[in-house]
Records
---
Amino acid sequence: MAPKKIVLIVCDGLSDRPVKELGMKTPLQAAKKPAMDALARNGISGTMDVIGPGIIPGSDTAHLALFGYDPHKVYSGRGPIEAMGVGIDMRKGDVAFRCNFATVDKSMKVIDRRAGRIRSGTEPLANAISGLKLDGATALFKQGSEHRGALVLRGPGLDHRVTDVDPHRESRILESKPLVPEAEKTAKLLNEYVRRSARILATHPVNLDRVRQGLPPANIVLPRGAGSMNDLEPLSERYGLKCAAVAGVTLVKGICRMVGMEVPDVQGATGGTDTDYVAKAKATLRLVDANDFVFVNIKAGDIAGHDGDFRMKLRIVESIDVMLELILKDLNEDVVVALTCDHSTPVSVKEHSADPVPLAVCGGGARIDGIKEFDEVSAASGALGRIRGMDLLPTLLGIADRATKFGA
Amino acid sequence: MAPKKIVLIVCDGLSDRPVKELGMKTPLQAAKKPAMDALARNGISGTMDVIGPGIIPGSDTAHLALFGYDPHKVYSGRGPIEAMGVGIDMRKGDVAFRCNFATVDKSMKVIDRRAGRIRSGTEPLANAISGLKLDGATALFKQGSEHRGALVLRGPGLDHRVTDVDPHRESRILESKPLVPEAEKTAKLLNEYVRRSARILATHPVNLDRVRQGLPPANIVLPRGAGSMNDLEPLSERYGLKCAAVAGVTLVKGICRMVGMEVPDVQGATGGTDTDYVAKAKATLRLVDANDFVFVNIKAGDIAGHDGDFRMKLRIVESIDVMLELILKDLNEDVVVALTCDHSTPVSVKEHSADPVPLAVCGGGARIDGIKEFDEVSAASGALGRIRGMDLLPTLLGIADRATKFGA
């Protein structure tokens, strides 16, 4: 049997709990979503504990699990993922941090953790503080969206077990401290970097301009979430998959790059609720031609969940359904298409929850189990039963005739 | 989301197999149980392998698993649980034994393993043989119900890997032997204790009195089931749960105390088929006010199973249902209520069996899956799917918004 292509569509945080205003239905149960239901009807359903029962997944750990990696083994912090997300090509041994551009006063007290939610001008600022040679390491910095950025320290003998410089509130910036003796050098270099970059930022034209306009200057970077780059065997080597991703959010892009996916920029794919669903569908179809495995993340459902807005979530279900319809109608039945979520973000909780997520798979060798709808409860009666996130990719490889044999 | 309270109700051994006389229904399928069914209807169901598929749980290992501990790692024998159950406050390094008060003749041959099922007078006997100083350890003894008791050896360098003194039949008492060289001291001390305590018991007024009445004297204790106290991280530290239990049986009380639960004595909660269900319901409701997690065990179903009495089991289902109704009607919908069993004790087997048990959870963030009845078969179609006992508490913590996040 010829190996088949796989499309995995992850609706970030779309899975939910019963909503009183919807007559104790979940948004997925209440919404009109003919394409999602068609996928379920033509395939096999189940539910999934993305990490494990009773464990609330972060978006980072969840995606690692969905790509078949054990997050308990490969996840050391969010820094490396953000760094990969903004496009720094990380290497083994690097230590990375998420950063905010922020505003400090002369006593180094943070007076705005987001530098007035600065939206433009961070690229020249980032360029000015990237490439600094420290005592035994190089610091690479790149801006992300809005006030965000990522810092990578590269050099011998670094260790990610250091505390944050970011005070996480409006108070004096913190000295990074080593959590283990091996991380002493890293903490020292990090503190040195923050001081030296602050001197450069203080007199940078972008900031002088902001001060003239009465805006808070982006005169410091606040590193947090240190992590080291673990040696992730890319999906291409692990499973022989040529793979690509359609994703708008930096974090998700970062994970995709970490596991060796190509992540082209898609015009209009914002990672917000205003994302261009048609553009995402078109990008997906384009990538299917040249790849074995195409991953699609749609962030909007998670945002509606965090906002506690069930009406917005209903609308997003329906928008994703339109996107899915465009994808399904142009794919032949040989392509294995899986639809699921990375975690639940119930509107009643406004945060991720540990509730399992629905899963439906059609195409390729997928069985047809008689489940007719795609939602948290219908999926639970499906023939896939209840699986763990780490088992998803192997399951899809099986259905796509890409699994390997053990024994004779 | 504010964390919610959890009530876990375990119907000991209530789960069963098809019964011929009930038209191949199980007692749970045949009984009238409107409260149990309401719980299922308003929540989510599933089945549970308390330890694992094809493993017959003991009540001790089962409860450890239900509280989230891996019994394969933390269980070393029943002694410590019985000791905690009778109220000896065990410490790390202690070695404990279950004991019977028994009758021996002059040649140390056991002629009655239960000393004529002695029912009273064991407290002064226990006091007389508790606190003995041995060569390098202290022996603590406390009576349990009827002929039962528990022995704890406390001192440096003890090891539980020793054989029983109890011959488990009417023959000469056994010398305890070390199973590993490290346990040599413990075996020696145990044998010393049995001899010395026998001398004290022989002339104790309670026994002289029994002999005068023609009753077999309780002139020896027969230790068995050696176990050491493992370092169990209590639920309060592990999950931040303030917790309490309503339980009548010594064994279950012991496990509850081991994991850090408060276990108040409930008047009328006998651990028998005559238990006061209303008193148990009231105690539960009282404890819910002051705790995050309240555990309730009802032993009666297991007794009916061991007796092979399906009519008694039907009556017990209905009695538990009355208790459940009292509990449910006074709890608000925020409280997560779970109903399950620690194992099956089919009336056709008269022993524990490896059959999975039904599980239903309502309240808090529980999804509603359309299952309308609480029994072994209906529950298996529920959206919880099939889980393991060790996953129960994490699952309940998730539904109660008490789970922890992994990642960002």
---
Amino acid sequence: MRDVVIIGIGQTPVGEHWEKSLRHLAYGAIRAAMLDAGIEVVDALYVGNMLSGQLAGQEHLGALIADFAGLRGIEAMKVEAACGSGAAALRVGTMAVASGMHEVVLACGVEKMTDTSGDVTTSALATAADQEYEVSQGISFVGLNALLMRRYMYEYGVSHKAFAGFTVNAHRNGANNPNAMFQNPVSESSYLRAGMICDPINLMDSSPVCDGAACVVLAPADRFRGRAKALVLASAVATDSVAIHDRRDPLSLDAVAISSQKAYAEARVMPGDIHLFEVHDAFSIMSALSLEAAGFAARGTGVRMAEEGEIAIGGRLPISTMGGLKARGHPVGATGVYQVVEVVQQLTGSAGANQVKGATLGMAQNIGGSGATVITHILGAV
Amino acid sequence: MRDVVIIGIGQTPVGEHWEKSLRHLAYGAIRAAMLDAGIEVVDALYVGNMLSGQLAGQEHLGALIADFAGLRGIEAMKVEAACGSGAAALRVGTMAVASGMHEVVLACGVEKMTDTSGDVTTSALATAADQEYEVSQGISFVGLNALLMRRYMYEYGVSHKAFAGFTVNAHRNGANNPNAMFQNPVSESSYLRAGMICDPINLMDSSPVCDGAACVVLAPADRFRGRAKALVLASAVATDSVAIHDRRDPLSLDAVAISSQKAYAEARVMPGDIHLFEVHDAFSIMSALSLEAAGFAARGTGVRMAEEGEIAIGGRLPISTMGGLKARGHPVGATGVYQVVEVVQQLTGSAGANQVKGATLGMAQNIGGSGATVITHILGAV
């Protein structure tokens, strides 16, 4: 098995791209990544996307985007794992290079969630949950997360205010990221005053509906070490029951634990070695649960890392360093690739005002459903 | 890169499974394949599926099916390449084993197309075509194939009757396959009398809307050679423009040519060495075009192989040996895995009345869209 490195990154700004279709968004990220890598040809393209069939009436994104990006003829396919689709595409790209089947491949995540009515998007997002056991009962995806947050508050006796630090941190970092959807800082009082979406989740607990695309260029370390921007030290996937009621313990994200432990073992590191963590903060409750299951905080204490400022740039474990899903935005099938692009920015000292000093080891964790698919990548500086 | 072998196969009958949901269908195929392989645990599951988001309101099939199959926790994700999704999942599974990242993995194709209204299925299938340049003009997927068939008849001066041999052959073989949707032989006169769907494509030129699941178990040759049922000698993907108008020549399936040539090179064989060919006969025109582009017939002469009986069991190149997409059925995201399961049946002498005598080299080719994604696998007998 060959070691894999990242030799180029690209991203479009996250936002409402009314004037751009899926293929235009993907092209922007692909072209930027190929220019960054200094390459003109690639062997394969793996596209992470969740919603295009439902929202754009377009499946078959592999061939469609390969052709539009000027790469007609190459191997191409789409990979889907709900909101974890981006990292799933990266996972497949890593296998393609590690196996020796390909030399230089692209992993591109793309999603276009606007340009449709809100209820359509809400229904489409609910396909990440279990249709027959959850959605058919009338619950939405935010509703499922609200149940988890309520249970967390009840079981550990924490207030809604305890989660404020996640949002404040994400927006503070997003304010310095020119590609973030929200570049405005948010105060704790603004967080508390935000409109309720699904009690206890309010607007400021929720990542936005948005469009965007991100791309990385993967290549074998043996031939491309001199051009590497980061080393892929671990790539690990784990799953759990999609339906939350069917889990051993709804507040224990077992797939996060398994995926993280596999990744630590593969990279031969401990949680304490990680310099920054791009967490899947689709809702603030997911940040708390992920920090706990990944081994950064004891059970029931994930919120304390936010309350005590440990997650800030300069803190014990900076998270959502470029704004996270909350402020950079969460174009669902693209998010996993954005996270990895941002880790590469940190490891190459290109994170601007959000730079984590001396960062040489970064982790990105992309989640599909409410913890049902968890994909962890650990990257190392060159 | 490690060599990969198939150690187990499973399939459900193809048909209208009104009483079974997606997860039940997949479970049936997975369980059969694991029993066939004599294994109780696997490392990963790659699911090929195209339509579940649109037809069942269910994405996230990787985690969903892994859990339902009793495999909670393992790596799982969905792979999509329109009607080529099944072979795409097999392709990813092959990379997972070849890379050394996993030992024993499942590639499962599953599709449920019934249990909804026909116009919904027709619209969903059209997401394999280019929404912005083709479908938005009002054409359906069968309509695109009808344009290709009309052009073929015009350019080469062949009649509709010239295609009859493909359907007659498929139904003759399907009649001996207990898993086939259609187990009735069809005569040339029945073919000619069939109702018109989209001129010149009639009912007997078309594969059916149906449900089904198929699964293979993949493992490394070095550890599992003694339990191998077939060797994966080649796995190759190529793409073309999704929109047909944008191709160099609509009657030349360039991606079939590239994918086939890559596969022949990888397996170190010539087209003449292949003993049987599971062709993507979604429409009879696709059989003719595929035989030509894959190097089995000269341009414009693919139909002659049907007219002259060369495609029958015992002929020069038996195709659709268990009924093909036309008679076994075409549950779109599952088809690519069914094809490979059937090649394994042939290579292990388990094809019953349809056995190709002395078959040691079989090829399966799964196509997404009208030739936009083409995935070729060549398998060898142990």
